[in-house]
Amino acid sequence: MSDCLFCKIAGGEIPSKKVYEDELCYAFYDIDPQAPTHFLVIPKAHIASVAEVTPENAAVVAHIFTVIAKVTKDLGLESYRVVSNIGEQAGQSVFHLHFHVLSGRDMTWPPG
Ligand code: 5GP
Ligand code: ZN
Asked: Which numbered atom of ligand 1 lies nearest the CA of 16?
């Protein structure tokens, strides 16, 4: 999608600090970290949010979770939180599917 920030980041058009990359997904550190470790994992193909996941495009979501399991192990993270905000009321500000991975501090529940 030509006017999407995360499509531009995944394509290298906008610089970011890479954590991991393969043919299907891209992981990079959040520009405004909310924990000592905070990175985002996105599909390279544009999907607006979890609300747009379908049987046809769901394989990339399973793949992203295998990447989260691997990358967190590689970074030595034993406890972490995975979050995806869907819609403005839930706090979504970029409308390209992304999973926040947050670690390195105590987390509260329920989330704010
Ligand atoms: P959301 O608010 O949609 O759940 O998450 C979007 C996230 O993207 C936010 O945590 C925000 O800090 C991050 N973000 C927004 N613009 C950029 C950017 O240009 N580069 C990086 N690395 N992160 C960004
Ligand atoms: Zn996009």
From this structure: 22
